[in-house]
Amino acid sequence: MNPIPAFGLGTFRLQGQVVIDSVRNGLEAGYRAIDTAQIYGNEAEVGEALAASGVARKELFLTTKIWVDNYSREKLIPSLKDSLKKLRTDEVDLTLIHWPAPNNGVSLEEFMSALAEAKSQGLTKQIGVSNFNIELTKQAIAVVGKENIATNQIELSPYLQNRKLVAFLAQEGIHVTSYMTLAYGKVLGDPVIRAIAERRHATPAQVALAWALRLGYSVIPSSTKRENLASNLLAQSLQLADEDMTDIAALERNGREVSPEGLAAQWD
């Protein structure tokens, strides 16, 4: 089973020609992992950009996420098949439950079982969750087994370090994927991050991404600018010192950017 790539391209909020250009530019810059979701409304455009790129499917790692409206046993697999059509592929590499949505009328057991069934049908190589707290991750493990949860994709940034949840996932051997690693760009102006960037001859974005990579997380930053896409990739070769990591650890402020009512559960 392919491990989840450490560096991927996010497509949240990118629509139409913008997402086509971003994916095309990303692939040209060297990205091979692409993260999308049903609710982003851009799977067809992502599929178009991938098809036009000429990059072989086996070189790509594609992730999508099932939207809350499709969690029931009757809807989950048909919705994923629809996503595959849009993405122009027979299977994705990873499919996640997007939000726990505890009160939407479908039990966790039902949607995790349906997701496992999608995997056994060969529609997705791996399955996982997104935005799950410790308790819900435990419940998901009880349904499908921790070895079948490839990742928990969660909001993580220098301002939201989520240490309790991260420690639990590490203990269970579940990989962490960090989204919103730049906190909507807020961390880019942080004086501590900027000082490290100057010291290391790097950009603030590279520093924040390198911090997450050093902690063992996968990252999926998005950008519409070719130069930023290329620049972000260089975070992979940026070596932060222990003192840099200590400085960034002190920036924790529980600065959560995303917590939609009705979709999120109680955070740890």
Automatic annotation (TrEMBL):
The keyword Cell wall biogenesis/degradation is annotated on this UniProt entry: no
Pfam families membership: Aldo_ket_red
Entries under CDD domains matching the protein: AKR_AKR3F2
UniProt-annotated site: Lowers pKa of active site Tyr, residues: K65
Entry annotated with the keyword NADP: yes
SUPFAM superfamilies: NAD(P)-linked oxidoreductase (SSF51430)
InterPro entries reported for this sequence: AKR, Aldo/ket_reductase_CS, NAD(P)_OxRdtase_dom_sf, NADP_OxRdtase_dom
PANTHER family found in the cross-reference section: 2,5-DIKETO-D-GLUCONIC ACID REDUCTASE, NADP-DEPENDENT OXIDOREDUCTASE DOMAIN-CONTAINING PROTEIN
Protein name: 2,5-diketo-D-gluconate reductase B
